[in-house]
Amino acid sequence: MDTKDIYKGTTTIGLKCKGGVVLVSDSRASMGSFIASKEARKIYQISEHVAGTVAGSVGDAEKFMELLNVEASFYRLQNGKELSTKGITRLGTHILHGNRYYPYLVQILICGYNTENNKGEVYSIDPIGGVTEEDAASTGSGSLTAYGILESEYSSEKTIDENLRLGVKSITIAMERDSGTGNHIKAAVITTDGYKEIPKDEVKKIYDEVKRK
């Protein structure tokens, strides 16, 4: 099968903030020049304080996130506590590296809130299991455009609200410059209170404000 025939997700962002982390994505999945889906899911909750974003093959991404979710749930049942963000990341790298000869066609961000030191964490994982810890990370075809905004405006000392706005702004500009990025913007935050998806109308309000400037 030609890789152009695989549904692909496109642009996602993970940002450390004062008090947590922000995850933002678009919702388009493309197949070559064809828009295969306008409502592709790219942000997945893995546990109470950990979530991930995906870019790449939709099928591979769904299967990979399902594996992480099952393993995180099993760990919680066995040990009576959550698997840490770093632990889930390590598990993800083992899965991807173990399949390096038949790789998952994905780029992954694992984002979480460490309740022991009260800090956000963002890890970027490549398709064969290489991992780096970042303050701000973006994946997918629109990531170069997104990084252009993040490089000049991002700070880990900004609040959740400030970096949520920046994430929406970065995806908005990526949508204007990258044909594989588009349709709707979706967002979530992770704080000491856990994972929370931002309501559509809230994201739309931020989007409209960004577009006016």
Automatic annotation (TrEMBL):
Subunit structure comment from the entry: The 20S proteasome core is composed of 14 alpha and 14 beta subunits that assemble into four stacked heptameric rings, resulting in a barrel-shaped structure. The two inner rings, each composed of seven catalytic beta subunits, are sandwiched by two outer rings, each composed of seven alpha subunits. The catalytic chamber with the active sites is on the inside of the barrel. Has a gated structure, the ends of the cylinder being occluded by the N-termini of the alpha-subunits. Is capped at one or both ends by the proteasome regulatory ATPase, PAN.
Active site: T10
Catalytic class of the enzyme: hydrolase
Source species of the chain: Candidatus Altarchaeum hamiconexum
Protein name (database record): Proteasome subunit beta
Known catalytic reactions: Cleavage of peptide bonds with very broad specificity
Family indicated by similarity: Belongs to the peptidase T1B family.
Recorded GO MF terms: threonine-type endopeptidase activity
Propeptide: 1-9
Record flagged with keyword Protease: yes
The protein's Enzyme Commission number: 3.4.25.1
Record keywords: Autocatalytic cleavage, Cytoplasm, Hydrolase, Protease, Proteasome, Threonine protease, Zymogen
Lineage summary: Archaea, Candidatus Altarchaeota, Candidatus Altiarchaeia, Candidatus Altarchaeales, Candidatus Altarchaeaceae
Pfam families given in the database record: Proteasome (PF00227)
Top-level taxon of the source organism: Archaea
Single GO cellular component term: cytoplasm
Localization, UniProt: Cytoplasm
PROSITE patterns xref list: PROTEASOME_BETA_2 (PS51476)
